[in-house]
Write a structure and sequence with these properties.
Blueprint (H helix, E strand, L loop, with lengths): L3 E7 L3 H12 L4 E5 L6 H6 L1 H20 L14 H25 L3 E4 L2 E5 L2 E4 L2 E10 L3 E3 L12 E2 L1 H4 L8 E5 L3 H12 L3 E5 L11 H13 L3 E3 L2 E8 L4 E7 L6 E5 L1 E4 L3 E3 L6 H4 L22 E3 L10 H15 L13 E3 L4 E6 L2 H6 L4 E7 L4 H6 L5 E7 L5 E8 L2 H13 L4 H6 L8 H11 L7
Parallel strand pairs: 1-2, 1-6, 2-3, 6-17, 8-15, 9-10, 9-15, 10-11
Antiparallel strand pairs: 4-5, 5-6, 7-16, 12-13, 13-14, 18-19, 19-22, 20-21, 21-22
Helix pairs in contact: 1-9, 3-4, 3-6
Length: 463
């Protein structure tokens, strides 16, 4: 008779392993099934973590090459050792995945190596063995998608996975998709020497973000040397001898033009990874986008089968999956839990960074919500000037009647860190006045947040 568990989690990405750890902390007997050789899912292995390693390394290279001298630091000729940079990236990934292994052992979680398949409610098959459990959590994440008729070969037409393992800096790169992944990977290779063009179907980059933020980001990225073809669609892409030939036409229709590049990065989005799990056989309902349909308790249409992260509705973000994993674990233990999807921040790790939480001005206007906007530029901040990082701004949106913070949008240095203060304020139901009345250390970038909060009431100090 096989070993029985309280919970089996399928998938060891940020949502899955965090859910498993919290379940174990709450006294449950837990197993995690993972088909990859290493733990951590897409995020740690081929996504968030390796991309941030290359973003950090490439940013340092560009600073040494172009900006250090402005501060009196003269370093002479700077060059890229791509093999060593990739080794650095791989070591970062390795140390992180080893860390997850340690955490599973520390919390006495059983690691089932192999792809998990749900045989029926309460039974999961992994590598030929069937394991019994009271609860199953689907946390299998997402996979890359391509355009119809275009094959990703991870050599010339690459996904984010292939873009993280290129063996040389391409002379030219075309990025299909002006979202987070396309811009992050595009900026890595642009800094390292590639001529990068981004093709976006919509009329601006970063779909879904605040319009003013999107315009500022596009302006700054153009200044850095990235070219954009907006309101354009790729109808064909074919790998040729030394590169890729593409056919591109206006999104509204019109005459097509032929473009070519050494490397094409397909970055139009991701799809939930729900194939091969046996979901149809056991009656788990999926929506039109093949996501698992769940209720407010993350339970699917089959009792005892739950789902979190990229396989359910909502933004495909690692920290969203982590929060869902923790909340689900606590609910399985009989506790209460809740997640407010309006208070999940999104960050683009370009330079400067872009961060957003809550409602945009466009959403508030569409819904007829009266609001006040307070904006403050990094150019007017002493610490930003001392860092040589004066591009961008912080914008806070507050309810006109209650002053409660409804959203915030930042483009500038360390935006991903600065947004946390505003997320906390929103979670605590605080007002713009509360942020403005909080003492912020000087000189810090955080003072820009305070000044933006003051600007909501038209009383910023330093502008």
């Amino acid at each position: 008779m096989s070993e029985k568990f309280d919970v089996i989690v399928i998938g060891a990405g940020p949502g899955g392993y965090v859910c498993a750890i919290r379940c174990a902390q709450l006294g449950m007997k837990v197993a995690v099934a993972e088909k990859r050789e290493t733990l951590g899912g897409t995020c740690l292995n081929i996504g968030c973590i390796p991309s941030k390693a290359l973003l950090s390394a490439s940013e340092k290279f560009e600073s040494a090459e172009h900006h250090f001298a402005d501060m009196g630091v003269e370093v002479g000729r700077v060059s890229v050792n791509l093999k060593k940079m990739m080794a650095f990236k791989d070591e970062v990934v390795n140390s992180n995945t080893k860390g997850i292994e340690f955490l599973l052992k520390k919390n006495k979680i059983t690691h089932l190596k192999g792809a998990g398949e749900i045989v029926e409610a309460g039974k999961v098959k992994v590598g030929g063995a069937v394991y019994d459990c009271d609860n199953i959590v689907i946390a299998t994440g997402s996979d890359v998608i391509s355009l119809p008729g275009i094959t990703i070969d991870e050599t010339k037409i690459v996904s984010s996975t292939g873009a993280l393992t290129l063996e040389k800096v391409p002379e030219t790169m075309i990025v299909i998709g002006g979202g987070v992944i396309g811009l992050e990977m595009g900026t890595v290779w642009r800094r390292l020497g590639a001529k990068v063009t981004v093709i976006e179907f919509l009329d601006n980059i970063l779909p879904g973000m605040d319009e003013e933020l999107r315009k500022e980001a596009a302006k700054l990225f153009k200044k850095q040397g990235i070219e954009f073809k907006l309101s354009s669609k790729v109808t064909a892409a074919k790998a040729m001898g030394r590169g890729v030939e593409l056919m591109v036409e206006p999104a509204a229709g019109g005459k097509a033009e032929k473009l070519s590049a050494e490397i094409v990065l397909m970055a139009i989005g991701r799809k939930p990874y729900t194939e091969g799990l046996g979901l149809e056989k056991v009656g788990v309902k999926l929506d039109e986008r093949k996501r698992v349909e769940v209720d407010e308790f993350f339970e699917s249409s089959v009792e005892g089968i739950y789902a979190i992260g990229d396989v359910i509705k909502g933004p495909m973000l690692a920290h969203k999956a982590e929060d869902e994993g923790v909340i689900l674990a606590e609910m399985l233990a009989g506790q209460s839990g809740h997640i407010d999807y309006d208070k999940i921040p999104g960050v683009v790790y370009t330079h400067p960074e872009v961060a957003s939480v809550g409602r945009t001005e466009e959403q508030l206007k569409k819904d007829g919500v009266e609001y006040r906007a307070g904006k403050f530029p990094f150019m007017a901040n002493g610490r930003a000037r001392a860092m040589g990082a004066i591009d961008g701004f912080v914008k806070i949106l507050a309810d006109a009647k209650t002053d409660r913070v409804l959203g915030a949008h930042i483009i500038g240095p360390e935006a991903g860190t600065l947004i946390a203060e505003i997320v906390l304020a929103m979670e605590a139901d605080l007002t713009a006045e509360d942020i403005a009345r909080t003492c912020h250390a000087h000189p810090t970038l955080e003072e820009v947040v305070k000044e933006a909060a003051l600007a909501v009431h038209k009383r910023p100090i330093h502008i």
